[in-house]
């Protein structure tokens, strides 16, 4: 090993570090660590003067490695790596010691302890850094095609942005039509725009765009490959209708004798036929046959749709089709599912007939819905005289979901407005806190208050039909503590709307697994950085947009869809991406071919090469987790930047004072 | 050290890059105090944790080792923490045979949002190790070379 010359820089971070850690002492002490040729302290290392100091010293002292002791590497690792690179030093010959988040800020009451810890962390970095090797980011070509999973508003927006830029998009949607939840809504808050009126033009564009291949009623089954070169297997479920011949005329579903309750689009309030188009503006316009309910598939008879179809487009024998597409990037926009209020039995949903969910109310209020927009009780005729809207159902509740579903306050206000406008009924909102945080939302809240809706601050404990007084007879009674007057209340109403919260899709974990996107503690997909990288995932080339990332409303979903598209377009126009070189590599000359590592890899990046009798890592698939490195019984897998030697040196360095028998070094 | 009642344990931490290291960052940003006993090392995933690292830390004088990763099911590498669980179980069996107390080597979870949990874990473990007293393997370990141990046994 040629001579190692390490430069150490200890940051004061103004008072943030220096207020607790004796920074000057740490810098002085570090000067005596092995291979250190220069050790300095500096008020702000991240400032241009701090960075320039590193650059100058690299040149003047011919530094081979650099250590900066300051904040978390998640904050400024990139900053200092770039400074090293500017001075001609490979950025991976830099190491960071986190003496702010992990020392000064958490040990403010123990200054000696914090200083000691800072010293041990600097020593760890100094010992480690000399084992670090220059690494080169890996360059990968990017295919220009993109896969967008999910045809709700976020997915549609992503697809349109990318397609409008002239690149091809495969838009995969599980349901027979794109549109997602937004297509079911009546109005949108706070503008009270007709939801369908603003959505359907976008749906139409997505369905007819020359650069979008719409794969509706389809699901992704398998994803192989890596950023730039994914191979995706899509199952196109059989519609039993030939899309090339069908004109969407509607004769088939008019004549179909089987009525089925529509639990998807009409939320169980309306019905459809066994051959059906989910809603009039569906894109694509072609119907599908519901095999479970169709008489032909039960008894082999009927074939009514086939008889009436003017273009002979019905295909009873149609089978699922498997399609393989090659794409460079993937955007997940798989959306959310509504919390099932049956899980809160004391709210009586499913037992008390006039307790509705928010989605049911959207369909009731929608002019294209089962009641043609009339807000009526479950009997289909009676208009309610009083309506209660219960906020935070299944949200902000440790028993169900601890997160805030973000949209329910505003949607509840919208419901209040629609009820008052259409029926003149008295409206009670039961809320915990009102959250109206976006543009125009607070104004909308005030407007609804002025329109006469009542607001009761208190979590509803029970909804019951057991009357205590004659006025409560035949009503639904909401029991709660009104925390503003400090008293329990019973409020009798005719109709209750439960503002059920937004949950991650039940299969989010599996979907995430397939695409290499993790789920956080709320079950939504985890972004690479919650603030600074909200649409990327840890897997290069896989992005997330919309409510699959966390509960959010339409404007935020649209913004995220466009943001994900921008990220995809950036990689397409650069034609190549640089990948972090933190990768595993097998020393084939020492590999025994035992294959233990092959099954360890969650990304199937390690293959056994029969001809050579050894295992080999596909560097483009490897994400650098290091599981195989730890598993190799021959210790011949090198986990770049987290090698065995580097980590052992780091342990030795971190314990340097203890091993030397002088625990209290201050 | 423990003689005069001022024993401060040294705990080496192995934190995964995505969850527990960020939990530690969050504990810092939120200024949650915990004892300055933990010296942490960042690894990309608890799946990278070679059991040798734990032994090395103990050999070098650590009184305890704390391994922290993402909650089961939330690993950023999908299942690295499950591998850590399996290796941990095997490692614990070995350590038990060496006479090491259960509390000395611990495996815990913290998501990136759980700064409180992180601080509490370090505080609790510090108390447990302080009660046990020093391990002092660095002075009881005759040589860094494990083969020398074997030779010493034969002599």
What does this structure look like?
The complex is a heterodimer of chains A (666) and B (155). Chain A is α/β, with parallel strands linked by helices and 666 residues long. Chain A folds into 5 domains: 6-135, 3-Layer(aba) Sandwich (Rossmann fold); 139-231 and 323-335 and 507-579, FAD/NAD(P)-binding domain, CATH 3.50.50; 251-308, no CATH class; 338-503, FAD/NAD(P)-binding domain (3-Layer(bba) Sandwich); 584-640, Alpha-Beta Plaits. In chain A, 28% of the residues lie in helices and 24% in strands. Chain A contains 19 helices and 34 strands. A 5-stranded parallel sheet of chain A has the order 10-7-6-18-29, covered by helices on one side. Chain A has a 5-stranded parallel sheet with strand order 20-27-21-22-23. In chain A, α6 (153-164) runs parallel beside α15 (554-574). Chain A is globular, with a radius of gyration of 31 Å. Chain B is α/β, with parallel strands linked by helices. Chain B has a single domain, classed as 3-Layer(aba) Sandwich (Rossmann fold), CATH 3.40.50. Helices cover 44% and strands 15% of the residues of chain B. Chain B has helices at residues 20-29, 51-59, 80-97, 115-132, 137-140, 146-154, and strands at 11-16, 38-43, 64-69, 105-109. A 4-stranded parallel sheet of chain B has the order 2-1-3-4, sandwiched between helices. In chain B, α3 links the parallel β3 (64-69) and β4. The mean pLDDT of chain B is 88. The chains are: A alpha/beta (666), B alpha/beta (155). At the A-B interface, α4, α5, α17 and α18 of A face α1, β2, α2 and α3 of B.
């Amino acid at each position: 090993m040629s001579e190692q010359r390490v430069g150490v820089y200890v940051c004061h971070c103004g008072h943030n570090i220096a207020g607790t850690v004796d920074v000057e002492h740490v810098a002085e002490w570090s000067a005596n660590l092995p291979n250190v040729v220069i050790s300095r302290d500096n008020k702000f290392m991240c400032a241009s003067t701090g960075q320039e100091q590193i650059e100058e010293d690299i040149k003047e002292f011919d530094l081979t490695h650099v250590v900066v002791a300051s904040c978390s590497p998640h904050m400024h690792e990139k900053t200092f790596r770039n400074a090293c690179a500017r001075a001609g030093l490979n950025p991976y010959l830099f190491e960071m010691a986190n003496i702010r988040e992990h020392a000064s800020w958490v040990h403010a009451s123990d200054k000696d302890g914090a200083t000691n810890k800072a010293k041990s962390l600097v020593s760890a970095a100094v010992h480690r850094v000399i084992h670090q090797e220059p690494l080169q980011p890996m360059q990968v070509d990017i295919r220009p095609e993109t896969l967008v999973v999910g045809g709700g508003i976020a997915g549609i927006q992503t697809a349109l942005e990318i397609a409008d830029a002239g690149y091809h998009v495969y838009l995969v949607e599980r349901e027979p039509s794109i549109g997602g939840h937004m297509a079911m809504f009546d109005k949108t808050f706070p503008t009270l725009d007709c939801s369908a009126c603003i959505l359907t033009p976008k749906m139409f564009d997505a369905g007819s765009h020359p650069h979008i291949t719409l794969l509706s009623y389809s699901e992704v089954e398998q994803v192989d490959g890596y950023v730039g070169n994914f191979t995706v297997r899509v199952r196109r479920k059989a519609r039993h209708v030939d899309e090339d011949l069908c004109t969407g005329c509607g004769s088939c579903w008019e004549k179909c004798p089987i009525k089925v309750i529509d639990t998807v689009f009409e939320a169980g309030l309306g019905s459809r036929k066994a051959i059906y188009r989910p809603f009039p503006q569906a894109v694509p316009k072609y119907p599908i046959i519901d095999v479970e309910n169709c008489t032909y598939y039960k008894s082999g008879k009927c074939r009514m749709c086939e008889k009436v179809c003017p273009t002979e487009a019905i295909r009873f024998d149609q089978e699922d089709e498997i399609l393989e597409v090659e794409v460079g990037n993937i955007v997940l926009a798989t959306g959310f599912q509504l919390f099932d209020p049956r899980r809160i039995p004391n709210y009586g949903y499913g037992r008390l007939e006039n307790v509705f969910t928010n989605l049911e109310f959207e369909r009731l209020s929608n002019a294209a819905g089962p009641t043609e927009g009339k807000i009526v009780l479950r009997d289909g005729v009676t208009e309610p005289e009083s309506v209660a809207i219960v906020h935070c159902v299944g949200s902000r509740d440790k028993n169900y979901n601890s997160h805030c579903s973000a949209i329910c306050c505003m949607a509840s206000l919208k419901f209040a407005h629609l009820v008052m406008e259409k029926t003149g009924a008295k409206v009670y909102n039961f809320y915990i806190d009102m959250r109206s945080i976006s543009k125009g939302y607070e104004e909308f809240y005030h407007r609804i208050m002025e329109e006469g809706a009542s607001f009761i601050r208190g979590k509803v404990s029970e909804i019951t039909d057991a009357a205590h007084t004659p006025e409560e007879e035949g009503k639904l009674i909401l029991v709660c503590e009104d925390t503003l007057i400090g008293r329990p209340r019973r409020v009798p109403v005719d109709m209750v709307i439960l503002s059920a919260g937004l949950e991650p899709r039940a299969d989010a974990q599996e979907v995430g697994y397939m695409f290499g996107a993790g789920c956080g503690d709320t079950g939504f997909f985890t972004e690479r950085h919650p603030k600074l990288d909200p649409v990327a995932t840890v897997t290069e080339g896989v992005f997330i947009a919309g409510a699959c990332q966390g509960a959010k409303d339409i404007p935020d979903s649209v913004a995220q869809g466009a943001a994900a598209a921008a990220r995809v377009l950036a990689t397409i126009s650069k034609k190549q991406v640089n990948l972090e070189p933190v990768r595993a590599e097998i020393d084939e000359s020492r590999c025994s071919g035992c294959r233990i590592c092959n099954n360890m890899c969650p990304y199937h990046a390690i293959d056994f090469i029969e001809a050579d009798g050894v295992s080999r890592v596909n560097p483009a698939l490897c994400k650098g987790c290091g599981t195989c490195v730890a598993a190799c019984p021959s210790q011949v897998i090198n986990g770049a930047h987290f090698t065995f030697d580097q980590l052992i040196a780091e342990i030795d360095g971190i314990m340097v004072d203890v091993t030397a028998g002088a625990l209290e070094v201050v | 050290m423990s003689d005069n009642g001022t024993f401060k344990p040294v705990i080496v931490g192995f934190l995964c890059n995505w969850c527990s290291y960020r939990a530690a960052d969050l504990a810092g940003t939120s200024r949650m105090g915990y004892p300055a006993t933990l010296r942490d090392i960042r690894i990309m995933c608890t799946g990278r944790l070679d059991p040798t690292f734990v032994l090395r830390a103990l050999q070098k004088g650590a009184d305890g080792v704390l391994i922290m990763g993402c909650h089961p099911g939330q690993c950023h590498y999908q299942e690295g923490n499950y591998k850590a669980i399996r290796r941990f179980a095997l490692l614990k069996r070995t350590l038990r045979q060496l006479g090491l107390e259960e509390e000395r080597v611990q495996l815990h979870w913290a998501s990136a949002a759980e700064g409180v949990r992180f601080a509490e874990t370090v505080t609790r473990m510090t108390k447990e190790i302080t009660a046990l007293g020093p391990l002092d393997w660095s002075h009881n370990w005759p040589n860094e070379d494990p083969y020398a141990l074997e030779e010493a046994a034969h002599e």
